[in-house]
Amino acid sequence: MAENVKFVEREQLKEKPDPSDLGFGQYFTDYMLSYEYDSEQGWHDLKIVPYGPIEMSPASQGIHYGQSVFEGLKAYKHNGEVVLFRPDQNFKRINDSLERLEMPKIDEDVLLDGLKQLIDKERDWVPEGEGQSLYIRPFVFATEGVLGVRASNTYQLLIILSPSGSYYGGDSLKPTKIYVEDEYVRAVRGGVGYAKVAGNYAASLLAQTNANQLGYDQVLWLDGVERKYVEEVGSMNIFFVENGKLVTPKLNGSILPGITRKSIIALAKELGYEVEERRISIDELVEAHQRGELTEVFGSGTAAVISPVGVLRYNGEDYVINNNETGEITQELYDKYIGIQSGELDDPQGWRVVVPHYE
Ligand code: COI
């Protein structure tokens, strides 16, 4: 159901950043979408407002007890039009995350309509360079200023937009070095691992910093009970190529159900690859590597897209994958995926959504 989106104009538009030096998530556009919730009115007051600081109570529940969820998706420019990639999936998932944290769900169509109107206003901010896009960050947090531990009665949703390049900086297909974390865990079944909640990322930072200090880019998490089965990487799901077959951890409640993950599985099957979603132990991977059967490893995520892994560090050993080069299957999937997202290739699945011109 469409809802009237109010527009609050800013006095002066910002200067746009140098497109050759965008980085990831460093610059923000002129406007953001705002939506508010209170228990009497429900979700209300959908508006496009100038991007800028927000005022909130220092006692806000979102700050103290972490009722805070987010999403990430992208817009691309192709032949003068701006397209979104599978936005319905992100809004479905934000509702799953909201439900898990006892936060109020949002009408997905209202949100999509609001997002389209925001992007329409900001279409000049969508970068067109190779590997660039407008990264879209919807997020919802609790705003009620009271310190009792209970679900907040008030919430705010914001969608902010950031013209961005590759997540890891430089060439997005440069292989990364991954540290297999066997001390800390990210999530356990029955917890919040499958939801995109802010606290999951906070809980990952100590291990990530430790890995960074040892010269690794990200951490590969093992399951929280036996520390034996691989789950996901800091900001990506993970895929392995074993004997020409793609294998990826089966969703089990503690793994984020990535939209890129789901899309890659569909694409790989279409391209004729066998894909297995199942439990994968770290020992199986080490043994496959020793036999020369673990030929490629890559991560998948909205921000990271498809990111080859060149080294896996486990138990004091560096396992080099495919000579630390991007593998053939990884490259094929990357080209196909980016081609569909950006509009260069056909979109038989209907994953692209064109942003209308409202005025
Ligand atoms: C994304 O891929 O959009 C993410 O949310 C991962 C990360 C940047 C937190």
UniProtKB/TrEMBL annotation:
Name listed for the protein in its UniProt record: Branched-chain-amino-acid aminotransferase
Primary enzyme class: transferase
Role of this protein: Acts on leucine, isoleucine and valine.
Residues where N6-(pyridoxal phosphate)lysine is found: 196
Species of origin: Staphylococcus auricularis
Family: Belongs to the class-IV pyridoxal-phosphate-dependent aminotransferase family.
Keyword Transport applies: no
Transmembrane spans: none
InterPro entries registered for this protein in UniProt: Aminotrans_IV, Aminotrans_IV_CS, Aminotransferase-like, B_amino_transII, BCAT-like_C, BCAT-like_N, BCAT_family
GO BP annotation list: amino acid biosynthetic process; branched-chain amino acid biosynthetic process
Keyword annotations: Amino-acid biosynthesis, Aminotransferase, Branched-chain amino acid biosynthesis, Pyridoxal phosphate, Transferase
Superkingdom of the organism of origin: Bacteria
Pfam families (alphabetical): Aminotran_4 (PF01063)
Cofactor(s) demanded: pyridoxal 5'-phosphate
Gene Ontology molecular-function annotations: branched-chain-amino-acid transaminase activity
Catalytic activity as recorded in UniProt: L-valine + 2-oxoglutarate = 3-methyl-2-oxobutanoate + L-glutamate; L-leucine + 2-oxoglutarate = 4-methyl-2-oxopentanoate + L-glutamate; L-isoleucine + 2-oxoglutarate = (S)-3-methyl-2-oxopentanoate + L-glutamate
EC number per UniProt: 2.6.1.42
Pathway: Amino-acid biosynthesis; L-isoleucine biosynthesis; L-isoleucine from 2-oxobutanoate: step 4/4; Amino-acid biosynthesis; L-valine biosynthesis; L-valine from pyruvate: step 4/4; Amino-acid biosynthesis; L-leucine biosynthesis; L-leucine from 3-methyl-2-oxobutanoate: step 4/4
